[in-house]
Amino acid sequence: MKTLCPPILRPALSITLALIAALAAGGLCAAHASDHLDSPQVIADPRLDIGDLYAWTAANGRQLNLAMTIVGHSFSRDAEYAFHIDSARRFGAMVAGSTTGTSIVCRFGPAQQASCRLANGADNDHLQVFAGPRDDPFFNNVKGSRDAFNYAAALLRNGTPRDAAGCPQFSAVQAGELLQRWRHTAGGPAQNFLAGWTSSAIVVTVDLEAVNQGGPLLAVWADTSLHGRRIDRAGRPLTGNALLAPLEADDISDALKLKYNEATPATAAEFISHIAQSLALYDGYDGECGNQLLADTRAAPTGRYTALATLLADDRLWVNSASTTCTQLFAVELAAIRPASPHGGDCGGRALDYDAVNVYRSLLAAGANTGIDDGVHADDSAHSNTVFPFMAAPQP
Question: Taking the model in full, what pTM does it have?
């Protein structure tokens, strides 16, 4: 195993996750209040809080690149940080015998040095590892997104009707105002709220032969655990934080997120109905109900969003490791849903430069890769999808 681990992490920036949450909500709040982005258990120890997960095929076609960002600025010596990789010959395979899985498990010593191993017993020479502070590659107009969400919530409180499936029937004027708010920050040009944000990162390059024994399609998710208990998990962007009772009181949303983090993709069916309710909300954002990805307008109203909710509850990043072209979030899923998709030859997954937020929400609101735009399309730092450890060094 080839390891690059700086012995000393830089001190935390003055900005904290609690501040991010407070600003995203529109103001400051008490320190003990939920941030309505993740559960209090996760927020309590930023060293266990996964920011984002990335997975894509290396340009040489021989490795899988993996990266996990951690909100805290150090790693816990008592925790395990793991990448889980299922391999299959077809998209969506989860039933017994159709996938072959392994994990890459990392622990940290007293000097913050990483020790990572392949759980399937493969030789650790298949791994190259970096662990330390990096500029976080995620970009997002948090304030614009929150402004749009608050506007939609206010319209619903003031009597905007929903159709039988729960989709808000915003007028064309209301939908236009909602999308306009999303594309701006405080009424001005859109700003990346996370510009200059430093996170800890675990970056791994693993030989494909060590992880693709079940087939070329790889389904990736990550988690952190403490004393055998899962604390946080991540797969696709936003699912765990944006689709679990976003309009409910904090105690209800927090309880769902806690259960979600303790579950796995294989045991997440209980969240399908909750996710479906949130999908109904997003479906109305463009002023048209029923045009969301996989929305079934011929089904009974209660089943309109079940297909997409089922797909999202299995919260794994799907990577076609047979492809070295990596440009499109949801490429594997879209190729399976729409055989004529122009992204059928893309590796999918999530590389560092994907405009993930806009693609994700466009699919949820309009069933297309574009259409919902928060006005931010790139990070403020230049990252690389080809030069290890990929993420830019922290900004001064």
Answer: 0.90
